[in-house]
Write a structure and sequence with these properties.
With 225 residues, the chain is mostly beta strands. It has no helices and 12 strands. The chain has a 6-stranded antiparallel β-barrel. It is globular. The protein starts with 9 loop residues before the first strand and ends in a 12-residue tail after the last strand. The relative contact order is 0.18. The N terminus and C terminus are likely disordered.
């Protein structure tokens, strides 16, 4: 754990909180962490393995570009704003503290090609979505799994109440030089005047806010690889 937490902030679990035999479905969170539980995490730090579908997307210089979610063993969904065509990215699954390579369990890493939505507009953020197709599949482990995709046309704005926004700060913490995955509670609403009607904005102050477009049905995209 290096310097991320003191012994007073860690409750070491004698048993793993995840049963791989039952993790056959998507979207299952390890709310108490794996092997340990951090207590007193008042800065939004997640538990290790709490969100198994979260991945970090790095450029060729090992610099963090964006977060994404694993929707199939070889497919990640992310935002087009932070990515570019014809650029090779490295995608890491199971990484928790990006300031170290010494997490409790190792991460998996794959190279990926990016496909931006054909209707994406950098000016208006319309269709701000991208798929990354990996050179090889990620294998399910205790801290790596898939997120669920909603059924076609079943999601409404009311479903976005009390959401969790999960990701990493682009920079390590000044307090302890850690770069641990964090989560914040947020409600989503339609953005203000002058924006696309289909854009949603998070009602929460944060270092980096992401505008999400809800006019894309990712179920219609080819994600079976």
């Amino acid at each position: 754990m290096e310097a991320c937490c003191t012994e007073d902030n860690i409750d070491w679990n004698s048993e793993v909180t995840t049963d791989l035999k039952t993790k056959t479905h998507c979207g299952i969170s390890n709310t108490q962490g794996i092997y340990m539980t951090i207590v007193g995490n008042d800065e939004g730090e997640t538990q290790f393995g709490e969100f198994p579908w979260m991945v970090s997307i790095m450029d060729s210089g090992n610099r963090f570009q964006a977060a994404g979610a694993l929707i199939a063993p070889r497919v990640v969904v992310s935002i087009a704003t932070s990515l570019a065509k014809r650029v090779k990215y490295m995608v890491r699954a199971g990484h928790w503290d990006m300031a170290t390579d010494s997490d409790i369990l190792p991460y998996q890493e794959r190279s990926a090609n990016v496909v931006l939505h054909e209707g994406y507009s950098r000016d208006s953020y319309k269709n701000d979505i991208a798929l990354l197709f990996l050179n090889a599949r990620f294998y399910r482990t205790m801290h790596i799994g898939l997120i669920c995709r909603p059924p076609h046309a079943s999601v409404t704005l009311d479903d976005y109440k009390s959401c969790l926004v999960v990701g990493w700060s682009p920079y390590p913490s000044r307090a302890n030089n850690r770069q641990i995955m964090k989560s914040i509670s947020s409600n989503l609403t339609k953005c203000g005047e002058g924006t696309q009607d289909t854009l949603l904005c998070a009602i929460k102050h944060c270092e980096t806010c992401i505008i999400i477009s809800n006019d894309v049905d990712i179920n219609e995209l080819e994600v079976s690889r």
